[in-house]
Every structure is written in structure tokens, then in C-alpha cells.
Design a protein that fits this description.
mainly alpha, 6 helices, about 85% helix
Length: about 120
């Protein structure tokens, strides 16, 4: 039961940080998203994001910071195994399913719903 509490707290704190970036620092959504992705990448590079995932579960894997974590994590794993080429292939290997799903579901939604513009 405690894992649900910590997932809520950690995920909520990540969202609060994003909201503060909007409201206080007046950053655009693109700047906020980029900052959160890069933060997740840096935390993974320092070896701090995996312990956060172990502690908070979905509270750390659902927010956008997890995308940065996945990019660096995949690149580092494949780089250790295949060298410089592994950096590129590792990024695509780890993130391709999520990116493909986003593209496919966005396309389906565009077919079903009438976009306003």
C-alpha cells in the first residue's frame, strides 16, 4: 500500500515542478517539457533515476522525466555492449515502442474526431 502513496507523492512532485515552471518562470510548454526530459536524462546519467523508480514505481515512470531516463539508459546499456554505434541503436531500441504507439494513436484519433483549426 505504501508504494501507491509514494508513487502519488513523487509523481505529484514532478508535476508540481512542471507547473511551477509554467506559472512562476513563465516557460512555454516546449521549454518545460524539454527541461523535464533533460532532467530525467541527467538523473539517469548520475545513477539517481533508477533508485527513484525502485522507490516510487509509476510515480517515476509515468511522467515525462522517464523519457529522458529511457533515452540515456538505453544508450548507456547499448554503448557498453556495442560501442559508439550502440549509443544510437540503444536510444531507438528503448523508445521506439512508445513513440510508435503515440504516432499510431494520434493518427487514429485524427481519423475518428474532427480536428478544430
Amino acid at each position: 500500500m505504501a508504494i501507491f502513496f509514494w508513487a502519488f507523492v513523487v509523481g505529484g512532485l514532478i508535476c508540481v515542478i512542471g507547473q511551477i515552471m509554467f506559472d512562476v518562470f513563465k516557460l512555454t510548454p516546449a521549454h518545460t517539457m524539454t527541461t523535464l526530459v533533460v532532467s530525467g536524462a541527467i538523473l539517469d546519467g548520475l545513477g539517481l533515476y533508477e533508485p527513484l523508480i525502485d522507490f516510487a514505481g509509476a510515480g517515476a515512470t509515468v511522467p515525462i522525466t522517464s523519457f529522458g531516463n529511457a533515452l540515456v539508459h538505453g544508450a548507456m546499456e547499448e554503448a557498453n555492449e556495442h560501442g559508439l554505434v550502440g549509443v544510437i541503436t540503444g536510444i531507438f531500441e528503448v523508445t521506439s515502442a512508445g513513440i510508435s504507439a503515440a504516432i499510431i494513436f494520434a493518427f487514429i484519433a485524427a481519423l475518428i474526431f474532427k480536428p478544430k483549426g
